Amino acid sequence: MTIPLVGTGVAVPVGFAEEVAACTACALHATRTTPVVGAGTGTAKVLILGEAPGADEDRTGLPFVGRSGRLLRQLMLDELGLEGNALTISNLVRCRPPGNATPTTQQRRACWPFMAEQIAYLQPAVIITVGNTATQQILATTAGITTLRGVTYEAHGAVVIPTYHPAAALRGGAVVLEALRSDLRLARPYLGGVAA
Ligand code: URA
């Protein structure tokens, strides 16, 4: 099966990408190659939120284009019928942490205004947070993803659906993968007829 390409349009206000590129609010700007603003023009009002760009994203400037990203986008297509530009994909932190380290609290705080601006602009009906970092920031909690996943929340004017990071499904096998699929299906009632 062909895995669809990530959308290359992006739903952000005018000047947003330039602001991200010029940001020096944390040390990550000094080591990254390309800031990753996000992707997708947002017609489906579903925002997928990851942690931070990895090596492939840093090289291309697009979110979730590496192995775990391809899995995530295939699952979004399988479970919700969403692909390409319909889906908005972004990361809590826009610049790659060296060695794919988990972004520090200071780095997450420094980057948060961009996320807040993107959410206010897109007004997503559903935010799907993948992994601990994005989930904990969006739900303002320190609880872990295994505890939080499997149900929906409300925050930032959206239904929030926390689930495992696709990298965990690549490592964790069938059980994690099935949990991820079933979490994504929780979004179906909120898609407003856009898909699935
Ligand atoms: N992991 C993430 O959290 N985001 C990406 O864009 C790629 C991998």
Structure, explained:
This protein has 196 residues and is α/β, with parallel strands linked by helices. The chain has one domain: Uracil-DNA Glycosylase, subunit E (3-Layer(aba) Sandwich). The protein has eight helices and five strands. α3 crosses α8. The longest helix is centred in the middle third of the chain and has 18 residues. The chain is globular and about 40 Å long. The two termini are 18 Å apart. The model has no long low-confidence stretch (mean pLDDT 93). Uracil binds next to α3.
Distinct small-molecule ligands in the complex: uracil
H/I helix tally: 8
**Class derived from helix and strand content:** alpha/beta
| Low-pLDDT runs | none
Tally the beta strands. Answer: 5
What is the succession of H and E elements?
HEHHEHEHHEEHH
* CATH-defined topology: Uracil-DNA Glycosylase, subunit E
Q: What percentage of the residues does DSSP assign to strands (E)?
A: 5-15%
CATH superfamily: Uracil-DNA glycosylase-like domain
Number of domains: 1
How many strands, which pairing sense, and closed or not: the largest β-sheet? 5 strands, mixed
What form results from the Cα inertia axes?
A: globular
Give the strand line-up of the largest sheet: 2-1-3-5-4
Q: Give the CATH architecture.
A: 3-Layer(aba) Sandwich
Distance between the termini: 18 Å
How much is the average pLDDT? 93
Radius of gyration: 15 Å
